[in-house]
Amino acid sequence: MSTPVRTLFASLAILLACGGDGAPAAEPPDSSSAIPLPAIPSTSTTGSAAELLGTIEATVDGRSMTWYAVSGVMGEDPYASAVWVGETGERHVAAGGFDTREPPLDSFQRDASGMAASYGSYTGPIMALFVLEAAVTAPATLSFPEAEGQGGVYFQWQADVDDIVNTTFWLTDGTLEVSTFSFSGETARLQGTFSGTFSNMGTDEEVEVTAGRFDVSRIPSVAALGG
Fold this sequence. Notes:
- This protein has 2 helices and 13 strands.
- It has one domain.
- 7% of the residues lie in helices and 45% in strands.
- With 227 residues, it is mainly beta.
- The model is unreliable at 1-47 and 107-117 (pLDDT under 50).
């Protein structure tokens, strides 16, 4: 699967997590220029403290790391770094995180299409994953590369929306085990583990990820955020 197609799958869920009049539409723009990074707050510089939805943990090339999936309000607009979109049976659920519970998103910018143009002063690492309901009934194990298109995990050492091909690492040889994939009312929950080789499509670099695990709950829908 090509990088643009991979990006499209992730963009369907993650890049729609914004509310308010400036929220992007429920269809992703051209995937070749889109970066599947979590959280789309408004450009306002005032907002509420972020609420923790869950965590993603992993050891990347021997370095133990934790990312926080958060939601909150910037100005009058809600945002979330975990979100679901779609109709029952065809829902896409995604969760991504920052390495801090209070990411500096006050100077966030997005382009005319609604996609991320800048994450302000946040330059830390990103880890995110997505799962397609039509392909997964928990508990389930997705083995890569065979499971490409059913779900995925990706990583950036530094958040970057300008050069996605050379900065994003995808799980290309390993497993994504989904132990919980459920919906309750208007929210979703994802739990599971992942590990394997993550490959950079632009530079051919690889990183080894072990002991990956995630537990993210109260994941809102795009509709609940006003998108």
